[in-house]
Amino acid sequence: MTEATKVIIGALVTVIAIGTIFFHFVEGWSWIDAYFFTVVTLSTVGYGSLVPATSLGKIAATVLIFAGLGIFAAAIQHFSQITIASRLRRRRAEREKQREGDGPD
What we know:
The model has no long low-confidence stretch (mean pLDDT 91). The chain is 79% helix and 0% strand. By secondary structure, the chain is mainly alpha-helical. The chain is elongated.
């Protein structure tokens, strides 16, 4: 695992943990509801089944969106790059095997 991957995973876990803890205590939601709201908000899905009722919760939700969305987008971009690079390496290796097999007998 690269250093960049560790940093991105750490940042994502930290944002999700902070959001979950915050909404659990400020909004009085269960741990699972607070976690669910945080992940749904960061992923921009926004089901609307949970909505902050307090002013502090509403302000925190906007901060979570602005701060967390960048981290979430960076994580998606980073893991997409890893996946694409892996597939390209695999394809190159397959082509090399085919070339070796097509060589003179």
